[in-house]
Structure prediction request, 568 residues.
Amino acid sequence: MGRSVRIGNGQGFWGDSIDAPLRLFEGGPIDYLTMDYLAEVTMSIMQRQKLRNPERGYATDFVRFVDQVLPELKKRGVRIVANAGGVNTEACRATILESARRQNVNGLRVATVSGDDILHRLEQLRDAGESLAHMETGEGLFDADREILAANVYLPTEPMVRALDEGADIVITGRCTDPGLVLAPVLHEFKWASWDGIALGTVAGHILECGAQSTGGNFTRWWEVPDMAGIGYPIAEVSDEGGLVITKHDGTGGMVTVDTVAEQLLYEMGRPDHYITPDCIVDFTSISISQDGVDRVSVTNVKGNAPTPTLKVSISYLAGYKATGQLVVSGPDALAKARLCARVVWDRLAMSGVRFDDTHEEYLGVGVVHEGIVPPAEHAPEVVLRLGVKDTDRAKVDRFGKEIAPLVTSGPPGVTGFAGGRPKAQEIVAYWPALIDRHKVKADVSVVEVGS
Amino acid sequence: MKVKLARLAHARSGDKGDGSNIGLIAYSDEGYELLRSRVTSEAVKAHFSAICKGAVDRYEVPNLRALNFILHDSLGGGGTESVITDAQGKTHGQGLLLMEIDVPDDFELDQEGIGH
Prediction:
């Protein structure tokens, strides 16, 4: 038997279960706990937070979790890798160091990986001839005036491995790839240099990155999933001989089968034979999966190739404002009355001289998300009318928000469910994917030890 | 006979830029051959005609008995820009399982689940 390591992922996105990481930590043996907090839009939200308060701009859920487990962390020998640093890895670490001092946890090493945030370097990069062209449209980022909110490079996994090599108990990164959080401990433990080995760790990370989606969450055969409330989060068992088994803690809910894992393997997949990360290119058409006992799925034959010379940059910019508002319309002819409500809103706004770049109507309950697939439920006993607008003028979007509630008293009968106040304009954060020469990006690793 | 895809396959979907992806996985080798021949890009585009404004790409993943579909321009502008309810294409997998295809009368179907 070779040596193996157990890596659990306790967080699939910012807003995932706040209890899952603790349950994974306490519910059985793991060597590494990873947590993924960063969606594309998250970075721009965090930049806004940091602008208002220079001590913010990271995942505060993470800090609260770490505070709970710090005294146990070293005792259990669990190391944490998380992209909780957002756009402020230093502030995130400072809070954790303070918590460690307060709880007299000495000898703890906390690393940050930075260099992904290139927002402050954009002008310099432009002057150096980088176009940061949109990956789909080819348009140059600097061809038009844009209010750019965030710009982060998906860093390769190597700096995270370096942080673990330097003895970090906790590694805090900004933008990295989601699979990289799992790949980092694999490469730290086994020092694999082959593309197949790097691809194996990447596939482990891909299966784990959405948390419970590999253990029975969002699974087609939902009626077969036991104890969904107590669903266990996924664990990758990786051996030095190149074995990979996906499992979960004994006694937890959910299930790990070839079907739950297959669904997750294809999740958010583009070209299956060409899955590009900063670390390698994985061929998902090479992979074999098989059941290896209860709640254990073995993953073999993972093939990888060398990565591209570029890194992906995730850029976000302000693209106007949007708002949505909704009402419940009930009783006889609910759908007809809901349609009238929508027309009344647009007509009243037009009477006030307000027109929008884009408007949207939905009649939820009639068959909206599967429009054209299911026959519309024309006689639904109640309908949720959901209206949306987009515009570059924030005031107009806010004006829309004031036109929903009046329908309860000045529209057709049976209208209710207006709650939560007037909908307010939200920023539309548009996403701009681009590529950058990987030599123009430098990652920095810094390790600090508490009590030294 | 005509049956819903839910009787021979399972699926999961998510967002991919301004489009969605759907992984469609057969329960058996015979089922996979049926998916390959019946669930073409054109059929999926027609099935999602009210939702998908762009083209549909299809990739084969025979090792998982799966097809992967990309439904371009199907999210009302994409994740953060969209005001539609399913701006991330989370429901497209369930929507695809409602598609009906012709299968041989002696084909062994899954007995449970959505779609009947």
Q: What stands out?
A: The interface with chain A takes residues 6, 10-12, 14-17, 21, 23, 25, 47-51, 59-64, 66, 68, 70, 76, 78-81, 83-86, 90-91, 93-95, 97-99, 112-114 of chain B (CB under 8 Å).
